[in-house]
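User: Hello! I'm new to structural biology and keep hearing that structure can be predicted from sequence alone. Could you demonstrate with DUF805 domain-containing protein? Please show me the input and the output so I can see what each looks like.

Assistant: Of course. The first part below is the input, the amino acid sequence of DUF805 domain-containing protein. The second part is the output, the predicted structure written as tokens.
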Amino acid sequence: MIEWYKKVVFQNYANFNGRARRSEYWYFTLANIIVSIILTLLDNALGTKFGNSGILNTIYSLGIFIPSLAVSVRRLHDIGKSGKLLLLTYGIMIVLVIVMVVSGLSLFMSGSAPSMSSLGVAFFGPLLALLAISIWMLVLFCTEGEKGSNKYGPDPKNDISEINEIGTSEL
């Protein structure tokens, strides 16, 4: 797990080209969650928390933002999808959140009690769309990569490259 994390953060910090295996993406994600939990606990223990976030965790999140995007794009490349898909889904999600906030504010500022149908349109429609997009992206990130080379590069699961990685890591 640590090797995959180091590969993403140090060797491929801002590399949006090529492909990333499922194990690279998910081990990086797991290590990222563990580091975030540890930093949150440290922020709480040291009293460096402001609002819902802490200074250490915020600095870490800002530093890991680019590698997180890069490994996500490379993961999409592994299944033959463009990295622009990630940008599109984030854009749609941001628009849906804005719609929810604006709709909610306009409902509650109207002065009258909002009806269940207006609440449903304002919150549950966009919320279901956000949930559907999140599930779809999760399925994409869990999908096995294309066998062999694709337009984004050689198969990272190629047996020869794995043997080379094992040989160089033991030296």
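User: So the tokens describe the shape?

Assistant: Right, they're a compact way of writing down the 3D structure. Reading them back into a model, for example: The first strand starts at residue 49 and ends at 50.
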